[in-house]
Amino acid sequence: MRHRAPRFRARNARAGARAKQKARRIYGLLEKQFRNYFDAAASEPGVTGLNLLRHLELRLDNVIYRLGLGTSRKQARQLVSHRHFEINGKTVNVPSYQLKVGDVLKVKGSDGVIDVVLEASRVRPVPSWLSFSADDKSGKILARPDRHEMETGVEEQLIVEFYSR
After folding, report:
1. Nearest CA-CA partner of 113 in 121, 105, 125
2. Count of domains forming the chain
């Protein structure tokens, strides 16, 4: 029985590494960025895995994707980089910008790009922690997201175990 322990440990490490890589690819992050989010989540009170997912969900590029203003996270990231959005009245072009509860996101003067994107991405419902007004093309962060409203394919417990070894 004792001789199986290293193989079992290696299998768990592989599962944790796979879970981490999957989350990194879903959110489009490099290793250093992801590790920084994990370190920030670990230093906060509460469940580390849930804190990590909240940090990832409250990135500006992800919120734009969740609001349906981008058909993918990559497209949302590009729209942010091209300065199509204002946060609380200020233009932001940093996709990793961390939004907070109460922040108001507004689409800057429409030049047709956002109209095309809006039409193409109406199929995804807006989560309950966000609100979106199509009339004035603005969204608001109503609350911090709960686990059931976040990305389902991410196994945060495996990620926490991977970084904790």
Report:
1. 121
2. 2
